[in-house]
Amino acid sequence: MGEAPGPASAFPGLTRLDHVGIACRDLDASIAFYRQTYGFEVEHEEVNEEQGVREAMLRINGTDDGGATYLQLLEPTRDDSPVAKFLERHGEGVHHIAFGTSDVARSAEGVGARGVRVLNPEPRAGTAGSRIVFLHPKDNGGVLTELVQTAH
Ligand code: MC0
Question: Please, what is the Cα angle at 146 between 108 and 29, to 5 degrees?
Fold first, then answer.
């Protein structure tokens, strides 16, 4: 048995809400909606083949650790991807939330030690060179949760 985990502050902190991921069927239409309705602009767009998404990051605000908070719009690129499955089951809507950290592997280890299933202990490639880890929604009150370490 390892040492019992200390308080949450004992591992590299989750310092901000990095993004809210929203599943959509038509990325361009969704971007147009958020631009026209809320005035949010796209800061970054890319295709992530591993995750099976075409995505856009719309910047909402800066944060006091020098990071930012985004809406992430996600359109599936293939039928067997997590976002395609989600759309089929739930329709369009909030797919996940993501917390920012300066050390994603250590943060994931810390959360995992508290009983939350870590879906990919080895961080994967996320938006704009970031490194990401997903945590099981069933261990997070039904919310798929991501930890993200930005490239800069
Ligand atoms: C599935 N479930 C969810 C969910 N996806 N609950 C809340 N939020 C979600 N997004 C629930 C289902 O309703 C179901 O519950 C149960 O989890 C099993 O789901 P499933 O669809 O049968 O499929 P599984 O178990 O094969 O996969 C679910 C799992 C998977 C969350 C493990 O989707 C996964 O590994 N996701 C992480 C990767 C990912 O989502 N990538 C896309 C975003 P019931 O009660 O019906 O059994 S990529 C991204 O966001 C990147 C680009 C980035 O941020 O940079």
Answer: 165
Superfamily of domain 12-149: 2,3-Dihydroxybiphenyl 1,2-Dioxygenase, domain 1 (3.10.180.10)
- Say if residues 15 and 95 touch (Cβ distance below 8 Å): no
With cut-offs at 50, 70 and 90, classify the pLDDT of residue 92: very high
149 catalytic per annotation: no
| pTM given for the model | 0.94
Conformation bin of residue 142: beta by default, left when phi > 0, alpha when psi is -120 to 50: left
Closest CA to ligand 1's atom 15 = 138
Is 46 in the active site? Answer: no
The answer to whether the CB of 57 is under 6 A from ligand 1 is no
